[in-house]
Design goal:
Length: 321
């Protein structure tokens, strides 16, 4: 999964922290019907809450170092893609051995839940539990670490079959956060499917960024002011013109950009009254000195009046050899 990683190393999107006015389909930019193809799926509906409950149980057991519960939630074989490029495609027992070793190397693990939902890919007939959280822990060297995560869990027969994890680095100065009360989210846990036409602005933005000659068109998809959280911890809150100056400077240092779309879905947070477009992409770019970058990207775009207001970006690095 992936999305246009431009700007310094990527662009971002999830859920803005302020309440936005309601988006109506009529407010969306008028564009021709999309013929976009997706590597995984572009056809989703909201899923069964029980699938997200499995994800929540997994994270709570992880925090509690409850190996027995963790093992009981996994399928007999499992594929795990971690944000730092580490991949496990093996048996449950092998994965549990890795988890046990990891838990022994950290202490004071805390999880702050931001958002969660269950969705279903109707063309793939696959159930997913999605989770947004911040993890804080102390590593083996006694250093405090914090990472913002977006994770996608494929659920089969009530068990976790696949985990795909994307990370957004937190600045070292980020203060330790207090954990959520049980069952609470700092953003939202109440979502419904939104008008799919909202995705067209996000697709238009990404396609324009991947085509340097279309950068002028890219600006038309942005609100007058935009907030961006990049996967590498960079934070940008600026006017549309300033954002486009930044984009132009970044793109001028590249010789090629390729963006492949994996999946997309528009949802609405009913308690926050906000529309969010979730996008997964695979991206490659090469700078003018020949340095190549390859990542999978997840981005969450908060929409206002059919335009992009906030972007939160998470990355999965190229697999480790």
């Amino acid at each position: 999964m992936k999305n246009v990683i431009l700007m310094c190393a990527c662009l971002v999107a999830m859920m803005a922290c302020s309440t936005a006015p309601k988006d109506d389909a009529a407010e969306v930019i008028d564009m021709p019907e999309s013929s976009q193809e997706y590597g995984y799926s572009g056809l989703f509906e909201m899923g069964a809450q029980a699938n997200y409950d499995i994800v929540h149980q997994w994270n709570e057991a992880f925090k509690a170092n409850d190996l027995e519960t963790l093992s009981g939630l996994l399928a007999d074989s499992i594929s795990v893609y971690l944000w730092d490029g580490v991949i496990f495609d093996t048996t449950k027992d092998s994965v549990m051995n890795v988890i046990e070793g990891y838990m022994a190397s950290i202490s004071d693990l805390r999880i702050i839940y931001h958002a969660g939902m269950a969705i279903k890919s109707t063309d793939q007939n696959a159930d997913w539990g999605l989770n947004w959280a911040t993890e804080q822990y102390i590593d083996a060297d006694g250093k405090q670490q914090q990472i913002h995560l977006q994770e996608n869990y494929m659920i089969e027969n009530g068990k976790i079959r696949t985990i795909r994890q994307y990370g957004q680095m937190a600045p070292e100065s980020t203060p330790l956060l207090e954990e959520n009360a049980e069952g609470e989210f700092s953003y939202s846990g109440s979502f419904v499917k939104a008008d799919h036409s909202l995705t067209e602005a996000v697709l238009g933005w990404n396609n324009a960024l991947a085509t340097p000659t279309d950068l002028e068109a890219a600006a038309t998809y942005l609100a007058d002011s935009v907030t961006i959280y990049l996967w590498d911890g960079t934070y940008i809150n600026a006017t549309k013109d300033s954002i486009m100056n930044f984009v132009n400077e970044f793109v001028s240092g590249l010789s090629s950009i390729t963006v492949d779309f994996d999946a997309i879905m528009a949802v609405r947070s009913t308690d926050r009254n906000e529309n969010v477009v979730m996008l997964w992409t695979e991206e490659r770019w090469t700078d003018t000195e020949g340095v190549e970058v390859h990542m999978w990207i997840h981005e969450d775009y908060t929409m206002e009046n059919g335009k992009i207001r906030t972007v939160r970006q998470y990355a999965m690095k190229e697999p480790v050899d």
